[in-house]
Amino acid sequence: MRRTSPRALLALLIAALLGACAGAPPVPTVERPEPPLFADSRFGPPTESVSTDRVFEVSDAMRRYVQVDIANQLRTKGTKNGLIEALYQKSQLKLEYDARMTKTAAEAFATRSGNCLSLVIMTAALAKELRLPVYYQSAILDETWSRTGSLLFASGHVNITLGHRSLDGGTSRDLKSTTIDFLPPEETRGMRTRGIDEETVVAMYANNRAAEALVDGRLDDAYAWTREALRRDPSFMSALNTLGVVYLHHGDVELAARAFERVLANEPASTRALANMAETRDRQGRSGDARQLRERLAKIESTPPFHFFNLGMAAMQRNDYQSARDYFAREVARADYYHEFHFWLGVADWQLGDVDAARKHLKIAMSSSTTRGQHDLYAAKLAWLQAHANP
Q1: pLDDT bucket at 122, cuts 50 / 70 / 90
Q2: Residue 196, helix vs strand vs coil
Q3: Which residues face 137 on adjacent strands?
């Protein structure tokens, strides 16, 4: 069975609807069922428990935290403001951003870490334990890109708004809703959001777990998590895209095309879907269709993610460090948030003898890393550079 690696995510061309001729008698409409999306028989059982039933479950430690550890703070500052202070004060929960794994509320609380979705889930669970209303928002912003091995990922962003309890009405406490975001304030200034329901948040959790399983090569787990995401929210197109990617990795090209087509029917301008569909058409031997899809993609996105980075890496292999530095600098200019771009720009600077610039970009790579392992790696590289730099 041949397996392939996806490049982006999803696509579709939709069938035209035929209207009745003028004056002709009406013809009964026959609904044609869409082909099934799932193929359970092609996958084995998952190696882990795949369930979203306990995503918001409150652990005994979480319950003790709000009932004992910050009880006085909640009484004196109000339930909402007391919880918010606990979330933001480094001396209290001491939350750390970590993108390695999307966690349930209890897991994020136990480790005091998680990605933005994990921290939103944990906050929601604590707030609901305190009977605070919660509202979820998905940010409307440019996608951020990252990669693991040959997989390219587009990431969105989620935050949460806390309301006030009905029993606080008529008191002097702050009754305004407050939005909590775990990104730095400068990154959220002017950010537009749209409301999403909790089922979509749960589907996001399952979809993230599917992507993490894909990175590890656990296709049975990835399929099961994607199926769970679509069970919770059948309209969540990112999960449908992930399903197509799972099928591509598994060698089920026709099923992948079916999933991507369904996505593109809903989001015809999705760059991820168009790129994935083009690869799928190539696999089907439909090179002409693939070329047309890439032409459509180029009109939307003339320079794909990691384009200059890949050129920079090729230049590094040729020992052309000046060209490499120029390419890496172009990626940094359009995606300053991504640690790997800064790291390799620092390496190119080092090769060109610009120690100060190399030190600067290694520090940025370290500070913008999203896992403890990445942070420690960049810290070690920076320490080596400091030790070997000319005085």
Answers
A1: very high
A2: strand
A3: 159, 195
Rounded CA gap, 145 and 136, in Å? Answer: 22
The encoded tokens of residue 146 equal 């990252």
Tens digits of residue pLDDT in 152-207 = 566 678 889 998 766 554 444 556 788 888 776 656 666 677 889 999 999 999 99
> How far apart are alpha carbons 183 and 227 in whole angstroms?
30
Report residue 92 as tokens: 């209290």
> What does the chain come to in residues?
391
Element (H, E) at 361: helix 355-368
| HSE, side-chain direction, 13 A CA sphere, residue 251 | 5
Comparing C-alpha atoms, which of 331, 328, 339 is closest to residue 376?
A: 339
Q: 345-386: per-residue pLDDT in tens?
A: 989 998 999 988 988 988 888 877 766 667 777 778 778 877
Contact between 180 and 84 (Cβ < 8 Å): yes
CA dist 39 and 251 (Å) reads 13
What tokens appear for 297 in the block? 């993609």
